Amino acid sequence: LKFGRQRDLVRCGFILMVVNAITVTLVNLLFHTTFDYQAVMLAIANGFLSAVLAIGSLPFLEHIFRLTSPIRLLELSNPGHPLLRRLQIEAPGTYHHSIMVGNLAEAAAEGIGADALWVRVGSYYHDIGKIKRPYFFVENLFTQDNPHEKLNPTLSTLIITYHVKEGAEIAREHGLPEKLVQIIEQHHGTDLVRYFYKRASENAQVEKENLIEEDFRYEGPKPQSKEAALVMLADSVEAAVKSLPKPTPAKVEALVQKIIRERLDDGQFDECNLTLKDLNNVKNSFIKVLGGMFHNRIEYPENVLQEIERKKTNGDTGK
């Protein structure tokens, strides 16, 4: 049995009550001349108290043994969690991005047998460090000018990459599970910040021989688990696909394939147990989810639009 909610423990307690009652009843009928009603009641009470004890002791056991139950993960995924509330208010673009990353990563996790709940929660918190400086990230730029236009690429890279370290610090300050902190730390691996590296290489004032690629990479570590790798891929894919001017199924598939290939060739999956078969399944899962997110709107024929407009006009006139 999987315990995803408290009601699952209650359900198990109820099942235990029934099983205990049936067992004690059969024992009474087979081996006793008189029926012991008290034993049956105690058996039922045992099941009830077991559920109560399990629910009540779970937070203490998690704290003592540093365990994270599915119930705890579901609590963390609640939009009302203080950190997620801060993300919604202070970095709304990042919050929306994180939700979309969660949808992608969870579907991919189910496709390769990874822990989908951990992946979803990890996706929700992976960019929590951006609440420190939200307007340095493009998804939070609604009306403001892009501050990176006034900065040199090296400084911009430092600001962008530092959100990983700040996210891990915030997560630890709020007592989030260590595995969740690790997903935050690993969700970019040692990936190259390609945009600013390209800007720096195109800068006429910078000699290419003095341009060090390592200065434009995240500190890492690389993903150590399938869950962290899936968050990495979903994060990159969601951001990239969203920037496509006119997304089509062919464009989306090509972009997803390109991103997965780049991360693979860059060695980002060298320290986790993702296989090529897994990556192919991840690609297919991403494409399926993105197909629903970026479907084409129905274009109505001109005569249908004219008819709708005529009925609307007649309706307004009749009022």
In short:
It contains 13 helices and no strands. It has 319 residues and is mainly alpha-helical.
Question: Could you please describe the fold and organization of this structure?
Answer:
This protein is an all-alpha fold. The chain has 2 domains: 6-65, no CATH class; 70-293, Orthogonal Bundle (Hypothetical protein af1432). 66% of the residues lie in helices and 0% in strands. It is built from 13 helices and no strands. It has helices spanning 6-31, 37-65, 70-76, 82-90, 92-112, 116-125, 153-173, 178-186, 194-202, 226-242, 249-265, 276-293, 302-317. α5 crosses α10 (226-242). The mean pLDDT is 86.
| Count of helical stretches | 13
Main beta-sheet strand count, sense and barrel state: none
State which percent range the strand residues make up: under 5%
By DSSP, the count of extended strands is 0
CATH class of the largest domain, named Mainly Alpha
Low-confidence stretches: none
Following the backbone from N to C, one meets helices and strands in this order, namely HHHHHHHHHHHHH
**If you average the pLDDT, what whole number results?**
86
User: Which class do the helix and strand fractions yield?
Assistant: mainly alpha
Shape: elongated
Structural Rg? 27 Å
Helix content: 55-70%
Topology (SSEs and partners):
Blueprint: H1 6-31, H2 37-65, H3 70-76, H4 82-90, H5 92-112, H6 116-125, H7 153-173, H8 178-186, H9 194-202, H10 226-242, H11 249-265, H12 276-293, H13 302-317
Helix pairs in contact: 1-2, 4-5, 5-6, 5-10, 5-12, 6-8, 6-10, 7-8, 7-9, 8-10, 10-11, 11-12
